[in-house]
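Ticket #4471: structure output looks truncated?

Reporter: J.K.
Steps to reproduce: submitted the chain below (138 residues) through the standard prediction queue, then opened the result file.
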Amino acid sequence: MKILIINGANLNLLGRRQPEIYGRESFEDYLGALRARYSEHTIDYYQSNIEGELVNAIQTAEGNYDGVVLNAGGYTHTSVVLRDAIAAVTTPVVEVHISSILSREEFRHQSMIAPAACGTIMGFGMESYRLAIEYFIG
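Returned output as attached by the reporter:
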């Protein structure tokens, strides 16, 4: 199985940014552990702070990956174009969030991309990514 993890804006700062919410582990360290745990599968990774580049990554996944794990960061709450990109491809996308967006500020309660994703996993810290991978390889 071939899975693409896409992280959006500011997620390149994991481990340093608001550790009380997002933890102290860098995503690169966590990604290494995921790849070791699921060594029989291919797990690729892409991160960008630029909305259009995230759209390109979702579109490029079509036909190249069995599934996409997407943490769109702040774009979750604002991006119609990410929602449209997910709806335009047949590759299934699972939306993930490290924190529970429902227990945060009110403006974070709405996900623009959730209706286009095949599911949402939130609030389990970095393990949200692992749970999404388990969905695909289940």
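Triage note (M.O.): checked the attachment and the full token line is present. The chain has a mean pLDDT of 93.
Status: closed, working as intended.
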